[in-house]
């Protein structure tokens, strides 16, 4: 349950007094999510989400995240819209933490995305890239390749307890990325979401209805966002048989949906296997850190790093974009 910071009734009432949103009718912690504290808030003027920012979000980055959502909303792209308080500011403080209220987005996150939803997601991702192509703010990717060796430091022993072969797989993948230097490729860059997992995309039935959770967004290669989505959307996890299978029709639909809005350049297609390896490594490493640092009995259940080790092993055998159904 991702509620790290409790909000008292008095603190909420004082906070809401700064807005023109009326009185609270309902206020509940949201179980989903792992990064920040999120509350469902219903007031006399509508439905909203209240977020209090926790450990991985740097308060200095918040104007960037808020500006990004304002930019997308102004372009008519479906995403949560930051709500301004009466003083014109969206970013405030609640219970000692930075906090914002955003509009409630309709839709449901798919538990097991269908191939049709993968196509819709690919289209939505490309529409987002296009809508952000004139977003003037920038932010470095703080979880890019330079951060990975640091995340891996001291994790080897715990990783071996999960699977004996893991330390070798990760050491080899890190050495391989250090040599290939994905950051030095000249690929089209722009604003990317960088965490577009199924729990961060909404659908109404099979129709894409929007994107939430922009708190890892940054300036990076656009194709890296697609590579993250290939990892997060196009594999079928079958824990019962200990298998993680790439689903070609999901991968092909994701790429085709993306290219229906923004065709990939040849260099982006060529880079896809390397970017997909990097993306798998990034999520393996942050999951590994959470796996070893989340205290037993905590309200948040850490995500399983092995799912991303399995994806990494798959990508290491892929040599070109056709390997993903492109
Ligand atoms: N704007 C929104 N509209 C509707 N539901 C939302 C919105 N923002 C967050 N949620 C709900 O809260 C959950 C957690 O939000 P998320 O931003 O993913 O949290 P975290 O950053 O902690 O991972 C989502 O899975 C979704 O159910
Ligand atoms: N998507 C990441 C974890 C971040 O979770 P989110 O709830 O903020 O999307 C992962 O799966 O490792």
From TrEMBL:
Keyword hit for Nucleotide-binding: yes
Boundaries of every Aminoglycoside phosphotransferase domain copy: 27-263
Pathway: Amino-acid biosynthesis; L-threonine biosynthesis; L-threonine from L-aspartate: step 4/5
Reactions the enzyme catalyzes: L-homoserine + ATP = O-phospho-L-homoserine + ADP + H(+)
E.C. designation(s): 2.7.1.39
Enzyme class: transferase
GO molecular function, a single term: homoserine kinase activity
Gene3D superfamilies in alphabetical order: 3.90.1200.10, Phosphorylase Kinase, domain 1
InterPro entries given in the database record: Aminoglycoside_PTrfase, Homoserine_kinase_II, Kinase-like_dom_sf, Pseudomonas-type_ThrB
GO biological process: threonine biosynthetic process
Protein keywords: Amino-acid biosynthesis, ATP-binding, Kinase, Nucleotide-binding, Threonine biosynthesis, Transferase
Family per record: Belongs to the pseudomonas-type ThrB family.
Stated name of the protein: Homoserine kinase
UniProt organism field: Hyphomonas atlantica
Species lineage: Bacteria, Pseudomonadati, Pseudomonadota, Alphaproteobacteria, Hyphomonadales
């Amino acid at each position: 349950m991702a509620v790290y910071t409790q909000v008292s009734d008095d603190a909420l009432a004082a906070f809401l007094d700064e807005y023109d949103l009326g009185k609270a009718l309902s206020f509940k912690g949201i179980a989903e999510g792992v990064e920040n504290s999120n509350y469902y808030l219903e007031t006399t003027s509508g439905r909203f989400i209240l977020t209090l920012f926790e450990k991985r979000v740097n308060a200095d980055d918040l104007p960037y995240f808020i500006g990004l959502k304002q930019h997308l909303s102004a372009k008519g792209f479906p995403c949560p819209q930051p709500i301004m308080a009466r003083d014109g500011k969206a970013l405030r403080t609640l219970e000692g933490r930075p906090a914002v209220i955003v509009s409630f987005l309709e839709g449901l996150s798919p538990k097991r995305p269908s191939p049709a939803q993968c196509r819709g997601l690919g289209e939505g991702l490309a529409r987002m890239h296009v809508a952000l192509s004139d977003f003037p703010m920038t932010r470095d990717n703080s979880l890019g390749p330079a951060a990975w060796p640091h995340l891996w430091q001291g994790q080897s022993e715990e990783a071996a307890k999960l699977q004996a072969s893991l330390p070798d797989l990760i050491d080899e993948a890190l050495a391989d990325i250090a040599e290939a230097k994905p950051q030095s490729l000249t690929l089209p860059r722009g604003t990317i979401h960088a965490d577009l997992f199924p729990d961060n995309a909404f659908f109404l039935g099979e129709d894409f209805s929007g994107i939430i959770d922009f708190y890892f967004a940054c300036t990076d290669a656009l194709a890296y966002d697609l590579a993250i989505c290939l990892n997060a959307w196009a594999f079928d996890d079958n824990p019962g048989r200990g298998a993680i299978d790439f689903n070609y029709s999901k991968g092909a639909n994701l790429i085709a949906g993306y290219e229906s809005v923004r065709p990939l350049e040849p260099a982006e297609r060529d880079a896809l296997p390397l970017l997909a390896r990097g993306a798998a490594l990034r999520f393996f490493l942050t999951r590994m850190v959470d796996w070893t640092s989340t205290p037993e009995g905590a309200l948040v259940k850490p995500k399983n790093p092995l799912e991303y080790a399995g994806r990494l092993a798959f990508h290491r055998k892929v040599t070109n974009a056709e390997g993903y159904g492109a």
